[in-house]
Amino acid sequence: MKYHLFFLMFFTSLWVSCTEPINVPGLDDQSNQLVVDAVFTSENRVHVIYLSRSTAITNTSFPKETGAIVYLMDDQGNRIDFAEGNPGSYFSTVVAAQPGHTYMLYVITANGNRYVSLPETLTGTPPPIKNLTSFDDSEVDGNGNVVEFAQIEITLDDPANEENFYYWYWQSDSLGQFGIPDISWRSATDSDELFNGNEVVFALEEEFTRSVDRFVKIYQATINRDAYVFLSSIKRQIGNEQIPIFPPNRPLESNLANENDPKERVLGYFVLANVTADTIRLAP
Q1: How far apart are CA 87 and CA 89, in angstroms?
Q2: Could you tell me the fold of the domain covering 19-122+249-273?
Q3: Which pTM value belongs to this model?
């Protein structure tokens, strides 16, 4: 049986600003907390970890966390260092997460605070992207001109009799020259609760302009339940026009903590992901 699902694009980055001031009691008091945006995958490439500080909701800029020591440790005692290339952006060498290995993220800030993640194990293998297809769409702009778009569908065979949580991220480019996936890439999540063991087709709910977005690269990743809950919760809050991380109900749970002060809240998540990727060319 084939299932067709649609998902909304969203930013996994926690560096989100609001266009209008929102008066929410107590939010301005919850500033200057460490924000961690970290995704480490099975792809052999340079990985980037972003560090910043939360700020009062009335501000529109987010201070970068500079001068930190950032590294991963695996269960074999191997250390992977991340060097600060741009303010708040920490880069690894070319490296890949290894299936079956467990990793912990360490961040030591310039003021000596030590932050560490829970152990995360890379398990499972993501099903390959079975097919990438595009189909035409169009609309009339304000000048009466017809603007042609393309939409993209991803087909995959979900493994039967196992629980899977999916994370997609993608970017378009006119020349097909894609850099390191970063916070500018669109992304989405889903679980296989409704389509376990079936072929499923996902449609990216984004319109691509064929004359500009000539190539689209899509990563398909499997993540664990906790990472899925965190990422999908951000999507839901943004969709409901809530403030990410500080919703009116229970705050999102991070898998990082301050070793010096366990009561301190850390914002963000260390995501470990098994990935596969494919690129589609959109004919003009």
Answers
A1: 6
A2: Immunoglobulin-like (2.60.40)
A3: 0.82
